[in-house]
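FIELD: query
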Amino acid sequence: MPLPVWCFGAAHIDRQARAHRAVRLGTSNPVTIRTSLGGVARNVAETLARLGLPVGLVSRLGSDPSAERILAEMARLGLDLSLVGRSETSGTASYTAVLEPGGEMAVAIADMGIYDEMGPEALAPALAAARPAAAWFVDANLPAEGLAAVLSHPGRPALVAVDAVSSPKAEKLRGLLGRIDLLCLNRDEAEAITGQPVSDEATAWSALRRLRAEGVGRVVLNRGDAGALVADTAGEASVAACPAEVVDVTGAGDAAMAGTLYGLVTGLPLAEAARLGRAAAALALESPSAVPATLTADALRRRALISA
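FIELD: result
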C-alpha cells in the first residue's frame, strides 16, 4: 500500500457567477450562479485521489450545511477526513468568482477567516498523525505560524510542497523558503516573495533563480499561456503550455500543482512532472468544475503526450 499524501489548507464552497455579458463595475450584472466544492488543498486532494493516490485532508470547517456537503462529497472519493477540524465560532469558508462570459475571471471575493484558526496548536494533532507520508502539501491560506509549524515539523516527509495561492498570501512564505521542497507560484506571487518585477521571460528566470538561492528545493513558475519555468538541482527547463478551450479558469492553478506533485510522487523528474501539471491545468480549464469528474491517471498522461 503506497503512503498517503496529506493536504493541509483550504476546503470550502466555490460560487462561480458567470456574467451574461461583459462585466461592468459599479452596476448590477446579470449572471448565472453555480456552486461547487473548492479550496486549494481540497482541489489538490481531490485531483490526487482521482489520479489514484491515497490522500488525506487537513482543513478547518464550520458547523453548517456547507461543511456537511464538503465532508459527504469528499468521503465518497475515499479521502481520509479524520484530521479535519471543526470551528465552534466560524462558518465554513467560501469563495465567489465573477466570470466574464468567456470564462475569464473579472473579480473574486473570499470569506476565509476560519483558516486563521489553523495555527500551531490546532495543527499539532494532525501533524503528529499525518505520517508516515509520501508527501505533504500545504497552501498559503494557513496563517504564517501554521505554515511554519508544518514546514518545520520534525516528522515531516522528504517532500513538502507549497502553493503560494495569491500575492498577499505569498508574502507569508518569505522567511520559510529554505524549508520548501517544491514551490508552485505565478508571476505576481513571485514578485510578492522576491520583491522584484516579473514582466518577461528574463525577469521570470531571475526570480526563479532567486528563489532557488533562498533555499527552495524545486520551483515551478507558472506563466499561463507561456507555459512554466522549472528549476531544481538537476537544472532548469521551460515547459510548454498545453492548449485548452477555456470553459472556466477556476482551479487551473490547483490542477497544475496537483499534476506536478503527482508526477514527483510517482518518481518523475521535475520537468516531466511539470508537463503533467500543464496537462492537468488544461483539463481543468475545459471543465465547468475545478476538478474534472472524468479525470484519471490515463487521461492525464494522454493529454500530456498531446502537449509534448
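FIELD: remark
The mean pLDDT is 95.
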